[in-house]
Amino acid sequence: MGANCVLYYITDRKAFSSDEGARRDGLLEKIAEASRAGVDYIQLREKDLPAREIETLARDAVGVIREHSGLATGERQPGTILLINSRTDLALAANAGGVHLTAEDVSPRDVRKAWKLARTEGRENSAVSARISVSCHSTQEVTHAADAGADLALLGPIFEKKDAPGIRTLGIDALGEAARAKIPVLALGGVTLHNAESCLRAGVVGIAAIRLFQENDLAGVVRALRAM
After folding, report:
1. What digits encode the pLDDT tens for the residues 95-114?
2. Contacts of 76 (CB under 8 A, 6+ apart)
3. Which of 50, 56, 103, 201 is the most exposed place for a label (fewest CB within 10 A)?
4. Rounded to an integer, what distance in angstroms lies between the CA atom of residue 40 and that of residue 224?
5. 3-class DSSP assignment, residue 83
6. Measured between alpha carbons, how far is 185 from 187 in angstroms, rounded to an integer?
7. Cα–Cα distance between 25 and 32 in angstroms, integer?
8. Alpha-carbon dihedral 3, 69, 37, 86, rounded to 10 degrees
9. Which of these, 72, 73, 95, 70, lies nearest to 82 by C-alpha position?
10. pTM recorded for the entire structure
11. Computed from CA positions of residues 191, 197, 201, 203, in that sequence, does the dihedral angle turn out positive or negative?
């Protein structure tokens, strides 16, 4: 069941250190680790950084991914795709693979139009077609993301998170309903190695997480998820 599980790591550099330089170094090392392990997507989610610093960090992340992707399978090719939070312009400038959108952002169709226009204006180094994921909090939002042309929907929170007790969660039944949509759905929010299999059995294509990937032996997590 889990051999083809799509794995989606969402970054949080502030968890690494109180020093910004160490945070950045720690994040890039974790991105390298994720790329070596064969994680499919990395979402650069450093929303507190100014645009210029996000672009610089994204460029470095792209370089790290190109250096380390494919090592798990012996193929020296960038199998891991970097997505930039909300900013199509920064994704294009950094030669990232696409964009992650929230409900407040522009539509996936607008991102694709901007991406296509940028390539016709000479940015051939960018991915030919943007990969676009969208944050969703209901089955209706998943359906809307599919209709708007997104590639992936991240549905959550599925389970309660230890740092956010009391937040309303969707649960496995809602996850199973959303998984029947016309778009691949990933489970997000409170997912651990203990409950991930129930998510996959509900019909989603994969798992999206911050802590699950960032706070554990990432290669071991990848092996465990893909053995389910």
Report:
1. 999 999 998 899 999 999 99
2. 69, 70
3. 50
4. 15
5. strand
6. 7
7. 11
8. -90
9. 95
10. 0.93
11. positive
DSSP lists the bridge partners of residue 161 as 164
Tokens coding 12: 């949080």
Q: What is the average pLDDT across 62-89?
A: 80
Residue whose token pair is 């960032």: 214
Tokens (6 digits) for 136: 């969703």
C-alpha to C-alpha distance for 52 and 218, rounded to whole angstroms? 29
Instruction: Tell me if 144 sits within 8 A of 118, measured CB to CB.
Output: no
**Apex 89 CA angle, 181 and 218, nearest 5:** 60
Which tokens go with 106?
């522009």
Residues present in the chain in total: 228
Is the separation of the CB atoms in 43 and 61 below 8 Å?
A: no
Coil, strand or helix at 82: strand
Give the C-alpha separation, 83 to 69, whole Å: 15
